[in-house]
Amino acid sequence: MTLTEKALCFAILAHKEQVRKSDGSPYVAHPIMVGMLVKEFGFSEAVVAAAFTHDVLEDTLVTRADLAAELGEEVAAIVGAVSENKELPWEERKAQYVAAVVAADEAVKAVSVADKIHNAETILNDYEAKGRAVWEVFNRGKEKKMWFEELLYTELTTVWQHPLLERYGTVIQKLQALEG
Question: For residue 35, what is the enclosing H or E element?
């Protein structure tokens, strides 16, 4: 199996019982879409593998050691860099996440931004059916969600230029236009 195939299988198993909080669909669809997005923009097999598994450290019982043993240190390092410390208060962990992504290499930036793009595009799609109720799945509501998205985007524009970042900026503008 290729590295991306192994990563895809790993993600499917790790997320097998999970569903997306927005619509109850199988959670693994999200990391698959994130992986396809970085692949579309020509990133390496290791970056695609990291995108497929970007949430396993945050949202499953998989450890960094497990991930490195299965998919290699490069993938584990990228996934580790895009994983939040959920023991911190929300605002602090979001600010720490932004600082870490901004300071990281292009692979980390790509996985992070692809993740945020897919999440934002999901909100836009869900908004068509649910209206402003789409914001109810976020503990902090639209205002804090947008604070985080704008902070990440603004900070990244100071250090990185890439079509993924342009797409992220566009989707943020569309989110801002939605009623909260």
Answer: helix 29-40
